[in-house]
């Protein structure tokens, strides 16, 4: 890491400010302090790239259990049975996609009537239909 080494030399040997170096090199001050701490732990070799692999996996299955699973699967395969898993990426791909919308949307009649241009046949028929739906009139003669 050439940049790390030059920044480290500037801080430790030349006594330059980490803030100034961070601005000029386009890195954060915390990164400079990390480099200084690594150098103090193990010298220039500690500045080399480190592995990003996790040191442990607490949820890992024990090797004895893994061996038992493999052994049982082989025994089942020998007698002609296969082990199916309830959910794997391959079974997911064979399932149909769920519907995108669960509810059907409809447009209200008032929206259609109000968006029609004035004077068009749909506007006049919409207006007459609206008035017919508004209040029913009784045209039959009333008994007296």
Structure description:
This protein has 144 residues and is an all-alpha fold. It has a domain at 2-47. Helix content is 53%, strand content 0%. It is built from 7 helices and no strands. It has helices at residues 2-12, 18-25, 29-42, 63-78, 89-94, 109-115, 121-134. Helix 1 (2-12) crosses helix 3 and helix 6 (109-115) crosses helix 7 (121-134). The longest helix is centred in the middle third of the chain and has 16 residues, at 63-78. The chain starts with a helix and ends in a 10-residue tail after the last helix. The model has no long low-confidence stretch (mean pLDDT 75).
For this entry, give a set of tags:
single chain, 144 residues, 53% helix
Task: Compile the SSE list and pairings.
Blueprint: H1 2-12, H2 18-25, H3 29-42, H4 63-78, H5 89-94, H6 109-115, H7 121-134
Helix pairs in contact: 1-3, 6-7
Summarize the amount of helix as a percent range: 40-55%
Number of strands: 0
Number of discrete helical segments:
7
Radius of gyration: 38 Å
In terms of quaternary structure, what is this? single chain
Outline type: flat
Beginning-to-end CA distance, first to last residue:
107 Å
Strand content: under 5%
Order of helices and strands: HHHHHHH
Low-confidence stretches: none
Overall residue-averaged pLDDT value: 75
Major sheet summary line: none
Structural class: mainly alpha
């Amino acid at each position: 890491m050439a940049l790390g080494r030059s920044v480290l030399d500037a801080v430790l040997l030349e006594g330059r400010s980490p803030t100034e170096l961070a601005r000029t090199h386009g890195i954060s001050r915390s990164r400079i302090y990390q480099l200084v701490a690594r150098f103090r732990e193990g010298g220039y070799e500690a500045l080399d790239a480190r592995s990003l692999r996790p040191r442990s996996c607490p949820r890992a299955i024990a090797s004895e259990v893994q061996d038992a699973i493999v052994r049982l699967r082989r025994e089942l395969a020998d007698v002609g049975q296969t082990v199916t898993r309830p959910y794997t990426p391959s079974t997911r791909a064979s399932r149909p996609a769920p519907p995108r919308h669960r509810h059907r949307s409809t447009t209200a009649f008032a929206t259609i009537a109000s968006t029609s241009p004035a004077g068009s046949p749909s506007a006049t028929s919409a207006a007459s239909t609206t008035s017919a739906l508004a209040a029913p009139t009784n045209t039959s003669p009333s008994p007296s």
